[in-house]
């Protein structure tokens, strides 16, 4: 009788492990929008304290390590993306941890982007350093053209602060820059 229970328990655990690993392998691709940059590379500047710079640089290093997109340091006079912080907490910024604004004057192509990490909310809601890095990764995902995801482990979950870049996120960036502008 005890042996049968152990066999049933082991069988259930193996089945659960296979189910979980199958879900991870077949994770949904993160949704992406119709707009993108002309190529999978942009220049950026970071404005803020040394701490804020470190948060953004860690997030940039994580995305660059995927090999799907490249963020390259630009100059104050010549850059496409501005990464900065704001102390705003009201109106549009109510309870947000970060926000991204993009400009697309040429049909389907981004020309500029601005990312704000909202420091008062990050402090108010006790975001750790790594939580802030994940928020920065999330906002950089928007810079690349990714939309919000419902996948539990995606960095692009609207309420994400705990997850880094997933396989589904990387696949979405790769697809976004393989497909013509306007297609998804």
From TrEMBL:
<keyword id="KW-0645">Protease</keyword>
<dbReference type="InterPro" id="IPR006026">
    <property type="entry name" value="Peptidase_Metallo"/>
</dbReference>
<keyword id="KW-0482">Metalloprotease</keyword>
<dbReference type="InterPro" id="IPR024079">
    <property type="entry name" value="MetalloPept_cat_dom_sf"/>
</dbReference>
<keyword id="KW-0862">Zinc</keyword>
<dbReference type="InterPro" id="IPR001818">
    <property type="entry name" value="Pept_M10_metallopeptidase"/>
</dbReference>
<feature type="domain" description="Peptidase metallopeptidase">
    <location>
        <begin position="33"/>
        <end position="179"/>
    </location>
</feature>
<dbReference type="InterPro" id="IPR021190">
    <property type="entry name" value="Pept_M10A"/>
</dbReference>
<dbReference type="Pfam" id="PF00413">
    <property type="entry name" value="Peptidase_M10"/>
</dbReference>
<dbReference type="GO" id="GO:0008237">
    <property type="term" value="F:metallopeptidase activity"/>
</dbReference>
<keyword id="KW-0378">Hydrolase</keyword>
<keyword id="KW-0479">Metal-binding</keyword>
<protein>
    <submittedName>
        <fullName>Matrixin family metalloprotease</fullName>
        <ecNumber>3.4.24.-</ecNumber>
    </submittedName>
</protein>
């Amino acid at each position: 009788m005890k042996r049968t229970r152990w066999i049933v328990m082991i069988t259930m655990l193996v089945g659960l492990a296979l189910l979980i690993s199958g879900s991870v392998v077949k994770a949904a691709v993160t949704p992406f929008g119709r707009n993108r940059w002309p190529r999978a590379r942009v220049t950026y500047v970071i404005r803020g304290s040394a701490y804020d710079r470190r948060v953004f640089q860690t997030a940039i290093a994580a995305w660059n390590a995927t090999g799907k997109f490249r963020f390259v340091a630009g100059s104050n006079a010549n850059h496409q993306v501005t990464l900065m912080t704001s102390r705003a907490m009201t109106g549009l910024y109510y309870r947000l941890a970060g926000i991204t604004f993009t400009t697309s004057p040429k049909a389907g192509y981004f020309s500029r982007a601005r990312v704000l990490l909202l420091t008062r909310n990050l402090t108010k809601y006790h975001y750790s350093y790594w939580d802030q890095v994940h928020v920065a990764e999330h906002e950089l995902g928007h810079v690349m053209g990714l939309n919000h995801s419902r996948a539990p482990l995606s960095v692009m979950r609207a309420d994400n602060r705990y997850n880094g870049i997933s396989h589904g996120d990387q696949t979405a960036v790769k697809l976004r820059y393989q497909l013509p502008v306007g297609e998804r």
